[in-house]
Amino acid sequence: MKFQTITYSIPWNLFLITLGSIILGIGLKAIVIPNGMITGGFSGARILLFYCTPSFTPGIWYFILNIPVFILGWMFISKRFLFYSLYGAIILTLAIDFIWFEIPVKDLMLASLAGGTIIGAGAGIVFRSLGSAGGNDIISIILNQKFGIRIGTYTFGFNFVLFLFSFGMLATDLILYSMAMSYITSQVIEYFITLFNQRKMIFIISNNSRQIADEIMKKLKRGATFLKGEGAYSGREKEIILTIANTFQIKRIEEIAFTIDPDAFLITENTFNVLGKGFSKRKIY
Q1: Residue 274: CB partners within 8 Å, gap ≥ 6?
Q2: pLDDT tens by residue, 183-226
Q3: DSSP code, position 247
Q4: Residues 167, 123, 280, 138, Cα dihedral to 10°
């Protein structure tokens, strides 16, 4: 069975959501809450509510906040995504309420680094599934699919308002450390999302384009596309090679290109994601 098929299977998605939610719960319960900090998103909102009105546990507050969000997810995304997200919210709620230990990090800067890394890793693993852990994830996906609002833009706006309301309720130092932790979390999430998807887009300009492309397809089993170009100085028509490769294949492509044509011109660019045959499969929630 191909890995692209496995990623759509129910056991694989439940495994990712379970693992990610537990790691996320450890970061929240063992580091963030003991140090009096808050995170971004719904996790931060429920922690802030817990600090203000500790009538319910942080896990119960999270589940209460998710009720209207799940209704929106049912209406605007898909039932599959909703059920996965409901499962993720339940696991995260249980993880937060049943985790009893604390990670003894008392320095707030170290707590920000550790909390942001652990929470980002957990959330990033969940994001690799076809569901979520509830909360802001659902709202951001709805706004992105229906209105084209970028997920990062909405998340930044929500967190800005959340931290703004935190002033006066929490110490200023705690809020600033929490903001730093949220930034670390976002960077770690981004790393996990692109961990297996990032590829390199390579342009090769050469007078021996056909020979170079043949060698790339033969030795690396990678496809290539010819783009029509023209030299600005010489006025000669050129065939520009466009190919996609992973980071381990870049040096081999360079070796092929410059062995055939020492005067070749090679451009390498980062790509966020590549979808299609031989690469990642489009995620459908």
Answers
A1: 197, 199, 244, 280
A2: 888 888 878 877 766 678 899 999 899 999 999 998 888 889 89
A3: G
A4: -60
What average pLDDT does range 39-64 have in this prediction?
73
Of 91, 31, 93, 42, the closest CA to residue 63 belongs to: 93
Instruction: Please report, for residues 14, 45, 56, 271, the alpha-carbon distance to residue 83 in angstroms, rounded to integers and kept in the order given.
Output: 10, 23, 24, 31
User: What CA–CA distance (Å, rounded) separates 239 from 209?
Assistant: 6
Q: Burial, 276: exposed, middle or buried (Cβ in 10 Å; 0-12, 13-18, 19+)? A: exposed
Asked whether 84 and 141 are in contact (CB, 8 A), the reply is no
CATH 3.30.70.120 domain extents, the chain:
199-271
Selection from 39, 6, 35 nearest residue 189 by Cα: 39
Block residue for tokens 């130092």: 173
* Residue that is written with structure tokens 């029509």 in the block: 228
Place of tokens 């997920």: 151
Distance CA 144, CA 139 (A): 9
3-state secondary structure 194-218: HCCCCEEEEEEECCCHHHHHHHHHH
Report the alpha-carbon distance of residue 165 to residue 178 in Å, rounded.
13
Helix, strand, coil % in the chain, rounded to nearest 5: 60, 10, 25
Long-range CB contact pairs, 224-229, < 8 A, 24+: 227/203, 229/205
Indicate the DSSP class of residue 31: I
* 246 contact partners, CB below 8 Å, separation of at least 6: 199, 200
The CATH number fitting domain 199-271, selected from 2.60.40.150, 3.40.50.1110, 3.30.70.120, 3.40.50.300 = 3.30.70.120
Q: What is the pTM of this model?
A: 0.72
